[in-house]
Amino acid sequence: ASPRITCPVLAGKVTSAAEAATHIHDGDRVGMSGFTGAGYPKAVPAALAERAKDAHDRGEEFGIDLWTGASTAPELDGVLAEAGAVRKRLPFQSDPTLREAINTGETEYVDTHLSHSAQQAWFGFYGQLNVAVIEVAAILPNGLLVPGSSVGNNKSWLQLADKVILEVNDWHPRAYEGFHDIYYGTKLPPERRPIQLTDPLQRIGDPYLRVDPEKVLAVVHTDAPDRNLPFKPADEQSKAMAHHVVDFLRHEINHGRLPKNLLPLQSGIGNVANAVMAELAHSEFEELLAYTEVIQDGMLDLIDTGKLTAVSATSFSLSAERAEAFNARAEEYKGRILLRTQEVSNHPEAIRRLGVISINGMVEADIYGNVNSTHVMGSSIINGIGGSGDFARNAYLNFFVSGSVAKGGAISSIVPFASHVDHTEHDTQILVTEQGLADLRGLSPAARARTIIANCAHPDYADLLQDYFDRAVAQNPRGRHTPHLLGEALSWHGNYQSTGSMRP
Ligand code: 0RQ
Fold it and tell me: What is the pLDDT of residue 96?
């Protein structure tokens, strides 16, 4: 018996991962826990991958539809993709093996906004959920579940699934009890009511996840760390971008458009977002708040230095070193960190009401400010839209950041026309590269183009972009609102595909 599994009914269901995996069948829709490499099941997916491989060896079909909160790790997406067991995947992923399966057409990928995934499952848009496999930190005597390092869609998967498998992971601090706010007030239209959240740290739900013990078929005991990838130390380029963002925020305070302690911050995944947080640590801003999705190292640093008072999120995404340090001192962070369901952390209503400042990475932007966050050369997925759309469209201010060039200068991140659009020119406000910052608020498309080219484009590409824009204006006497040369608009991407460089 484990001190982490104290409910007699559920303790009686403890079994091996291999045994638990026998409850999952070919064609099942399976909702697993996991968000940005945190809180995903560590044992059942590998056992399931073995089941799939055995079936394939016997010449039988075996594949599942896999739903999560967001990206997971090699022990989940990796092993299942490797086994050829993922037929359909939603809503966000970042695993190299799975990405390959998606890009070769083997796996179908449904790239939904993270705030939409649970509600669309509730609406019935994806079909019935057969099994939920959810990692938790502990099971209490009364059967309530102490969540772990992420919440994601766990509440919904536990409620919607016919059958439930729980993994109880001793690696998570037992002190996680009290870190979570699980909102059980969601209803379907037309029964929906306002979400009464007016402060990032406000509690509107319960500290625990609930599960119907009758549905629980197996409980698996594990002791294994989250994925916890290292961050690159901030390089000169990300420091420059972070500097532009912080300078701009200062400018907004001086013009009376932001309070001195800013507004709640959202920072996306990746190294640049992490570097912006590091830059804020050296700034004069005090008493900051965050209403975000993931807590990366940079945000914990802000809490440690006292700059950030508190943060609401749905998950951690820490380096291994930082995760171990956090786990050892978890108790000290209680009351300053609240993990919510992704429906609430990314809810348009809450984001708009709180006036969130959102900062996310991008792949490319075009001269009018359409932003591509997901695709290389219009066709190959990188990760997915994640929460960037939830935040950007509803934020008080949104920033999109990227180096001005990629692949050693062969690719310009500012292009005549984006090869895929995740955030339209109607949504995007501020673009940032190491070259500078383009404030697009209140500008017409043509004025946006001039600003983006002058401030954000790399010097190697700025004249080429200006030339494109000037000729588009000259050749469209009645199309000067958003002038384009349609035959040429995607020629930079074509050049890259045929010559390995976007340059003509
Ligand atoms: O590829 O590693 O093979 O060289 O794209 O680029 O510069 O390391 O940037 O780590 O900040 O990620 C948009 C992917 C940026 C991320 C994206 C290549 C580049 C490199 C990564 P290599 P960097 P970052 C909340 C917010 C969507 C989800 C989101 C992302 C790789 O920010 O996934 O925002 N965003 N969620 O070489 C071709 C270009 C390129 C390019 C860069 N123009 N063309 N390749 N690359 N620019 C969190 C969640 O939702 C969970």
Answer: 97
Q: How close is the Cα of 377 to the center of ligand 1, in Å?
A: 13
pLDDT-derived band at 229 (thresholds 50, 70, 90) equals confident
| pLDDT, average across residues 65-88 | 98
Among residues 306, 104, 333, 348, the alpha carbon closest in space to that of 318 is found at: 333
- 271 pLDDT above the threshold of 80: no
272 Cβ inside 6 Å of ligand 1: yes
List phi, psi (to 5°) of 274: -65, -40
Token pair, residue 18, equals 């291999």
Strand partners, 163: 131
Distances in whole angstroms, Cα of residue 118 to Cα of each of 162, 215, 342, 351: 16, 20, 8, 17
Q: With contact defined as beta carbons under 8 Å apart, do 346 and 293 qualify?
A: yes
- For residue 109, report the distance from its CA to the centre of ligand 1, in Å: 18
Cα–Cα distance measured from residue 381 to residue 376, given in angstroms and rounded to the nearest whole number: 6
Amino acid 252: pLDDT: 98
173 Cβ closer than 6 Å to some ligand 1 atom: no
The rounded Cα 264 to chain-centroid distance in angstroms is 17
Q: What is the mean pLDDT of residues 252-276?
A: 91
Q: Kindly compute the dihedral angle of the four CA atoms of residues 179, 290, 324, 3, in this order, to the nearest 10 degrees.
A: 10
311: helix, strand or coil: strand
Does residue 100 have an active-site annotation? Answer: no
For residue 317, give the ligand 1 atom closest to its CA.
51
Three-state secondary structure along 424-441? CCCCCCEEEECCEEEECC
Amino acid (1-letter code) at residue 298:
G
Question: What is the torsional sign of CA 276, 281, 282, 286?
Answer: positive
Q: Is 413 in the pocket of ligand 1 (CB under 6 A)?
A: yes
- The DSSP output letter for 178 is T
Instruction: State the pLDDT confidence band at 272, using cuts at 50, 70 and 90.
Output: confident
C-alpha of residue 499 to centroid of ligand 1, in Å: 22
Contact 111, 385 (CB under 8 A): yes
Beta bridge partners of residue 188, listed in sequence order: none
pLDDT of 50 reads: 98
Q: How far is residue 149 from each of residues 85, 110, 111, 227, 353, measured CA to CA in Å?
A: 26, 25, 23, 11, 26
Q: What is the mean pLDDT of the chain?
A: 96
